Amino acid sequence: MSGNALYTDLSGYYDLMCADIDYAAQSHCVHRLQQLFGNGGKRHLDLACGTGPHVRHFLDAGYSSSGLDINQPMLDRAAQRCPEARFARQDMCDFQVDEPLDLITCFLYSIHYSASIERLKACIVSVHEALAPGGVFCFNAVDKQRIDNASFVSHCAQHADGQLRFSSGWYYRGEGEQQALRLRIERTVAEQSEVWHDEHPMVAVNFVELQSLLAPHFEVQVLEHDYQRLAPWDGSSGNALFACTKR
User: Fold this and answer.
1) Residue from 50, 63, 129, 44 nearest 93 by CA
2) Which 3-state string (H, E, C) describes the chain?
3) Residue 159: its pLDDT value, please?
4) Which candidate, 203, 35, 17, places its Cα nearest to that of 112?
5) Cβ atoms 203, 115 nearer than 8 A
6) What are the distances in angstroms from CA 15 to CA 57, 79, 83, 188, 221?
7) What angle do CA 31, 37, 38 make, to 5 degrees?
8) Is the dihedral of CA 211, 214, 219, 220 positive or negative?
9) By C-alpha distance, which of 199, 167, 208, 211 is closest to 186?
């Protein structure tokens, strides 16, 4: 494998890479947002669902839950985790559903995988068309103007392949509609280490721009990025939760 490439199939490491995420708290918070701002329905779709951990929590909470992703190995693992759910390999910027939905989620900043403003607009339109009246679109996002390029988050996990250290951070050059998610994986076996780097192109927006894109389609609530309590965004933090009710 090339030293400049990330693991070809990340699906086998995805859950370890996200081991520090409190999926239960995130799912419960969005359930509360659906109760507050939505129509109370239980038909749910998770965009960029990965291996399905959020879908699992929504199923356990009584939702009819489904997921979509563009990565088939991820979907294969999601189907193993959630055999009663429906999964589809679709692009979140151009997807269709069989029936109207009450809740659509997009966790882990995956809305930025739209990669351009035009595709982000298309994603918003696709979500709006898929929702039933009063349906809610919930996601988290980062404001490009508040990105600290020197900031990374890291954690370690033990795997059969060795000790793994995962690091990730945002990078924005200060202009334009492109930012990057930079990933680093270090594997250590018997005191010998290998390192893989990858960089994912992401769409860059500030929260004012994002609200203007959403406003024609949704009533928008912007909240602090805190899954334990619901509070309005303070206008200064660089991460936020968006709860968007279909007009």
Assistant:
1) 129
2) CCCCCCCCCCHHHHHHHCCCCCHHHHHHHHHHHHHHHCCCCCEEEEECCCCCHHHHHHHHCCCEEEEEECCHHHHHHHHHHCCCCEEEECECCECCCCCCEEEEEECCCHHHHHCCHHHHHHHHHHHHHHEEEEEEEEEEEECHHHCCCCCCEEEEEEECCEEEEEEEEEECCCCCCEEEEEEEEEEEECCEEEEEEEEEEEECCCHHHHHHHHCCCEEEEEEECCCCCCCECCCCCCEEEEEEEEC
3) 79
4) 203
5) yes
6) 15, 14, 18, 18, 30
7) 70
8) negative
9) 167
Burial (CB < 10 A; 0-12, 13-18, 19+), residue 74, is buried
Q: For residues 32-37, give the mean pLDDT.
A: 97
141-157: average pLDDT: 95
Q: Quote the crossing angle between the two packed helices 117-130 and 207-214, to the nearest 10°.
A: 40
Q: Please tell me the predicted confidence (pLDDT) of residue 171.
A: 98
Mean pLDDT for the chain?
93
Q: Which residues contact 6 (CB under 8 A, 6 or more apart)?
A: 183, 185, 196, 197, 198
Asked whether the predicted pLDDT for residue 142 surpasses 90, the reply is: yes
Provide the pLDDT for residue 9. Answer: 58
CA distance 11 to 161: 14
